[in-house]
């Protein structure tokens, strides 16, 4: 159960990181990085950030790039939140693949529905 302080810091970090990624991905056409959720540890020192990356084919390469530039991203975040936060939390990035999972489930359900709608031929009725 998150405290009110953790929730406020999570929302602030999510908002500011979203703005940072929006500015950076505007330079690269066809790529979208959005911040799905942010969870801050009870001591407010670590923020676990879940990123949704589109297109998902490039997700791992983009995530590797984000992890390599983690210090720069944290610095930008610290500059933007310098009046709200005394210390900027350490950032831990994770890929949020829930949309891919939902899409996969929808495809499986569509295949199941197709197989149910196809007429079955009964060899004994001929």
Write structural notes for this entry.
The chain is an alpha+beta fold and 126 residues long. It has one domain: GMP Synthetase, Chain A, domain 3 (2-Layer Sandwich). The protein has helices spanning 4-26, 59-68, 70-80, 98-117; strands at 32-40, 46-54, 90-95. A three-stranded mixed beta sheet has the order 1-2-3. The radius of gyration is 21 Å and the shape is elongated.
What tags apply to this protein structure?
single chain; 126 residues; alpha+beta; GMP Synthetase, Chain A, domain 3; three-stranded mixed beta sheet; 4 helices; 3 strands; elongated
Short description:
With 126 residues, the chain is an alpha+beta fold.
Domains (count) = 1
Rough outline: elongated
Helix content: 40-55%
Integer-rounded radius of gyration: 21 Å
Judging by the overall fold, what is the CATH architecture? Answer: 2-Layer Sandwich
What does the main sheet amount to?
Answer: 3 strands, mixed
The count of DSSP E runs of length 2 or more, i.e. the number of strands, is: 3
Stretches with pLDDT under 50, minimum 5 residues: none
* CATH fold-level label: GMP Synthetase, Chain A, domain 3
What is the element layout, followed by pairings?
Elements: H1 4-26, E1 32-40, E2 46-54, H2 59-68, H3 70-80, E3 90-95, H4 98-117
Parallel strand pairs: 2-3
Antiparallel strand pairs: 1-2
Helix pairs in contact: 1-3
